[in-house]
Write a structure and sequence with these properties.
The protein has about 425 residues and is of the alpha+beta class. The protein is built from ten helices and 21 strands. Among the domains are: about 100 residues, Phosphomannose Isomerase, domain 2; about 100 residues, Sandwich (Jelly Rolls), CATH 2.60.120.
Length: about 425
């Protein structure tokens, strides 16, 4: 087997779903320009940049060889421990998303249900973590029960829609109950199974009231979002989820992890996303795609809590030279084994070292330029611009030095522990 360099450039593919941001306003489009063959069009949406081995949009080496094929030829780049646990492919997919129009309300199934669904409908989408690179908003999990109860008493269109679908749903919903989850499920099921005519009638009345300036004080914030979603998805029951689901706002560098069996949807903003490549997704609102309301209703945990509880707490990451934290690097470590992500933000002319990781990794430069050293400094290469994507093989320590504009990069990795 021919030995290969453990660090190399990747060319990542961009896609153009209609929900993406347009032209240069899209971070996915901006970063895609690091590929000299890519020509950005100012009137075209750029929704995602994919970094990994997924066959839908595989990353390639500069030679044109796919990363998947290269790893098959050089399994040492994945590392023995990761290969033993996850096989001969990357267990994660790394992305940049640029969201102009809300994505579907969905949930990722737990492992047992995911395996069943994958056999029935093998459209491979996965548990995921989102890190904001511009201001971001999204739905994540159910609101505190007292907030839902408040909307049931102050938003007549919301309450009447649920009552018409199931006359007993609201009366059975008591936030003070010792076990409120069955009643929350009944409430959610009543909303999601309301007829199209019922939804359209209630939504028209709601939006007309809001557009006429009739939003109540208790509806501040959600009224604007409901109007926005109703324009994007006319007549969609998912608009009413503004009254059931938390709206999580993230600033640059803030993150949230989307747990299995919990509802979520991206609404707007640019994010770094990392996801496992082994499960499915179940959709039920804000989507023209297949809706599987019965499965979604049955699979959710019906946990509830405040929006702040949905945020991840980043951790320190030890530098290469000591057990002390690297002051320029932050670790986002979700509670699943398939991936973690590092954010390294280096001021001009400063350096940050990453210890050799016991598994493969991919990083993308989101700002600045600099140099990259590996093999204990015996190899050195330039990082010239934002959008550059690099692969680093298992067991390879790296050192980043920022240029005159600093250097910011996100690095997805896996270690089998």
């Amino acid at each position: 087997m021919t030995k290969t360099c453990p660090v190399f450039r990747l060319l990542a593919g961009a896609n153009s779903y209609e929900w993406g941001k347009i032209g240069q306003t899209s971070k996915a489009g901006q970063y895609a320009r690091a590929d000299p063959e890519f020509k950005l069009q100012n009137d075209k949406p750029y929704s995602e940049l994919w970094m990994g081995t997924h066959p839908t949009l595989p990353s390639k080496l500069q030679s044109g060889e796919t990363l998947y094929d290269h790893l098959k030829l050089h399994p040492e780049l994945i590392g023995d421990a990761v290969r033993k646990r996850f096989g001969d492919d990357l267990p994660f997919l790394f992305k940049v998303l640029a969201i102009e129009k809300a994505l579907s309300i969905q949930a990722h199934p737990n492992k047992e249900l995911a395996e069943k669904l994958h056999k029935e409908r093998p459209d491979v989408i996965q548990p995921e973590m989102a890190i904001a690179i511009t201001p971001f908003s999204g739905f994540c999990n159910f609101r505190p029960l007292n907030e839902i109860a408040l909307y049931l008493t102050t938003v007549p269109e919301f309450a009447s829609l649920i009552s018409r679908s199931n006359p007993h749903a609201i009366s059975s919903f008591t936030p003070e109950s010792s076990d409120p989850k069955p009643a929350l499920r009944t409430l959610f099921e009543a909303l999601m199974t309301a007829s199209d005519d019922q939804v359209k009638s209630a939504l028209d009345t709601l939006i007309n009231r809001y557009e006429g300036g009739g939003a109540k004080q208790e509806e501040a914030g959600v009224s604007e979002l409901a109007q926005k979603l109703a324009k994007q998805y006319p007549g969609d029951v998912g608009v009413f989820c503004v009254f059931l689901l938390n709206v999580v706002e993230l600033k640059e560098g803030e993150a949230m992890f989307l747990q299995a069996d919990e509802p979520h949807a991206y609404i707007s903003g640019d994010i770094i996303e990392c996801m496992a490549t082994s499960d499915n997704v179940v959709r039920a609102g804000l989507t023209p795609k297949l809706r599987d309301v019965p499965t979604l209703v049955s699979m959710l945990t019906y946990n509830s809590g405040p929006a702040d509880a949905q945020r991840m707490k980043p951790q320190d990451f030890p530098s290469d030279s000591s057990s002390e934290p690297d002051s320029y690097t932050t670790l986002y470590d979700p509670p699943i084994p398939e991936f973690s992500v590092l954010l390294t933000d280096i001021p001009l002319s400063k350096s940050a070292s990453h210890r050799p990781l016991d598994g493969p990794s991919i990083f993308i430069v989101t700002s600045g330029s600099g140099t990259l050293e590996f093999n204990s400094g015996s190899n050195k290469t330039e990082i010239k611009s934002e959008g550059e994507v690099w692969f680093v093989g298992a067991g390879t320590g790296v050192k980043f030095t920022a240029g005159s504009n600093g250097l910011v990069l996100y690095r997805a990795f896996v270690e089998a522990q």
